Amino acid sequence: MQILFFSLMYLIPAIIFIFFAGMVYGHNRKSWKHITCSLFFLSSSLWFFGVFTSFLIYPKYFDHIVVYWINGSIAISALLSLHLFLINANMYKTKNGKLFKLLFIPGIIGIATIPFDSWMLKGFDDNALDPMFIPGPGLILLWIVDFAYLAVNLFLAVKEMKKGNQAAKLWFKGMLSFFVWTITMLVGSILLQHTKFDFITFFVPHGSLFWAYAIFLSMAKYDYLSSYEKRYNILFQRSPLGILLMDEEGIVHEASPQVANYLGVSNKELIQHSILTFLNGVDKERFIKAHQTFFQNRIRLTNEELSFINKTGEEIILSFDSDFILLEGKTLQFVMVKDVTEAKNKGKREYYLAYHDILTGLSNRAAFEIKIQELISRKEMFDLVLLDLNKLKKINDTLGHQAGDHAIRYLATILQETAGTEHHAARLGGDEFVLLLNINDTESIIKQIRKQIAIPMKLSGSEQMTLSASIGVSRYPLDGEIMDELYSVADKRMYEEKYDVKL
73 near 50, Cβ under 8 Å? Predict the structure, then answer.
């Protein structure tokens, strides 16, 4: 029964401290503030583990546990708490900030001298009802240093409170509660010893929970930043990137002006409304399902893209990264977005120019070579149809290059319409075109091309001109197993037809 009592009294608070340490460290593993705070919580948990162990094996090794374990962890906690506050209040960055490091010298010396028994432990009071150790001068000095650090923390917290630091108010309340609790329990344990109320001494460490909760709450609200609200607002309002805070349902809690500009609405319209309201052209059911999956599993997103139509009718492409933050006790998705519409459109234009013929809009030689290599790699039979527009030079010389360009575009249109989406049409350059066709459709497509070319092409005014083209066909793999072989055979057959036409 006694073990159960001590377990509830000390192990539960120790676990709470470990939980706090894990939560803080998990939010930002690279921040020295978060690391220091996590270490502070862990060293505080050692205090409770030490007290539990001392009662569990009492009186064996009781003095050693109290001196080395319990007082050592308390001293380390005191050092870490002071260091944490100095970091959070940006004290080290002030003009004489380096001098604050001198405050740690007494504590470090105190911890370093703990191994000296005669200095830390004077002896035992054998006349006491229970074996009780008598602290040495070193241990008394260490206690004084610990309380001094608490006093320094209180003093600095008051200074920060006067500057409007909201986090400092929480720290001050937590430290003051810890101080009052500890003094009350210590005085009570002395006055009530050897009475039925002497159990009050068991509660001495529990005051640290007030302080721990205050620190954890300040993390949740202010993320340990001095003048956080002012800095956050400057970043929020002036950041070239859009900043967005959303909950699991996609409701916008905060949004920077840049986000409102992207969506084509005012900031007032955006706050406390679903982000889906402003994303036209997006599969909303799929979007919210994915969003909730990411949220529930805390999946961070990097370089993701979203394309939509905003409220002004513009097509927008946003690139975004996301993470999760704890704000006022509630988890929100923190999203940073950037408008990449112009860059994406430029990229599409560059890609188009790289693989398309500017005059006709057909695929160019580079795209044709990629496509034919794909077909060859599949080992499937296909036909390569080579076309050459007859007498283009004569058209250019007699009617001008504009008429020649018109003739090329006219033939390109015929090829595009007859080939459709199932086949590939390309302009290789000049008056030379190529088709990659399914062998079952080749004959009918060539007939259709000849029929369409036979229709006179309209020139300016009432003038018309009838075009003709020479065609050569090669078949993979019967006429060749590589591109050059197929092209050579088709080219030869095309010129044979051209020669026959001249005759």
Answer: yes
Show me where the domains of the chain are located.
Answer: 2-228, 239-344, 356-502
336 SS3 class: strand
**Which residue is listed with tokens 């800095």?**
231
| φ, ψ (nearest 5 deg) of residue 462 | -105, 5
In angstroms, the CA 488 to CA 94 distance is 80
Identity of the residue numbered 155: F
- Residue 501 has a pLDDT of 56
Res 370: pLDDT: 93
CATH architecture of the domain with residue range 356-502: 2-Layer Sandwich (3.30)
Tell me how far apart the alpha carbons of residues 489 and 292 are, in angstroms, rounded to a whole number.
59
Q: Do 208 and 44 contact (CB within 8 A), yes or no?
A: yes
Segments in 137-277 forming alpha helices (H): 137-162, 166-191, 208-222, 228-238, 257-263, 267-270
Residue owning tokens 């529990």: 206
Place of tokens 């260490």: 142
CATH class of 239-344: alpha beta
Q: 192 Cβ partners below 8 Å, 6+ apart? A: 198, 200
The rounded distance, in Å, linking the Cα atoms of 419 and 387 is 13
- Residue 132 has a pLDDT of 57
Q: What amino acid is encoded at 87 in this protein?
A: I
Class of domain 2-228 as given by CATH: mainly alpha
The pair of three-digit structure tokens given for residue 96, joined into one six-digit string: 């004489």
Sheet containing 315-327, strands listed edge to edge, beginning at the edge strand earlier in sequence:
252-255, 242-246, 330-339, 315-327, 301-309
Beta bridge partner(s), residue 307:
317
The ranges of the chain with pLDDT < 70 are 1-2, 59, 93, 117, 123-133, 198, 220-236, 327-329, 461, 500-503
Instruction: Name the amino acid, one letter, at 52.
Output: F
477: which residues sit within 8 A by CB, 6+ positions away?
379, 381
Q: Cα torsion at 489, 491, 495, 497 (round to 10°)? A: 70
Q: Residue written as tokens 């205050």?
A: 214
